């Protein structure tokens, strides 16, 4: 009888733990708005870095005074690995959200990084993907750049459409 009670208690404990793990996962997903996975859908593919640089200086997480960077060149860069080695020939997308100017709505969109020796990429096929935003389509340094937070969500995709982990970079623009 005591063995049966002990086994029932272990089963109940395992069930409670499984329920708690499922609930924690659901809460984590809802906290992310359900839009970006917390891990890769292909376990051996990993985005290991994501960064922005303005005029060659890293600006991840910084607040920029517009007078110091106006008309600067923004460079977006990310590194994608598979099984710990560079993973060239794939796709990295950056979803962006920029504050609107003069009370207008935020501007959102998506652009690509390249690992083919173009668009500011230094070396083709090295697993380091880049986009140099010379005309400030997506960056935060143009003449009409609004004050506020600029959010950039980086994610890699393999040829089958499996997603890597996401990495977000935010830059805040303040003052003129």
Assign the CATH superfamily of the largest domain: Immunoglobulins
Radius of gyration: 21 Å
What is the CATH C level class of the largest domain, in words? Mainly Beta
**Structural class by secondary-structure content:** alpha+beta
The tally of structural domains comes to: 2
CATH level 3 topology of the largest domain: Immunoglobulin-like
Low-confidence segments, given as residue ranges, are: 5-38
| SSE ordering | HEEEHEEEEEEE
The count of strands amounts to 10
Overall shape: it is elongated
- Mean pLDDT metric: 78
Q: How many DSSP helices?
A: 2
- State the helical fraction: 10-25%
Strand content: 35-45%
End-to-end separation in angstroms reads 77 Å
Largest sheet: 5 strands, antiparallel
Please state the second-level CATH architecture of the largest domain: Sandwich
Quick description:
The protein is α+β, with helices and mostly antiparallel strands and 176 residues long. The chain is built from two helices and ten strands.
Can you offer a commentary on this structure?
The protein has 176 residues and is of the alpha+beta class. The protein has two domains: 1-34; 45-174, Immunoglobulins (Immunoglobulin-like), CATH 2.60.40. 19% of the residues lie in helices and 39% in strands. The protein has two helices and ten strands. The chain has helices at residues 2-31, 66-69; strands at 45-54, 57-58, 63-65, 74-82, 85-86, 91-98, 107-113, 128-133, 148-157, 163-174. The strands form two sheets. Strands 1, 2, 4, 5 and 8 form a five-stranded antiparallel sheet that branches. A five-stranded mixed sheet has the order 3-10-9-6-7. The protein starts with a helix and ends with a strand.
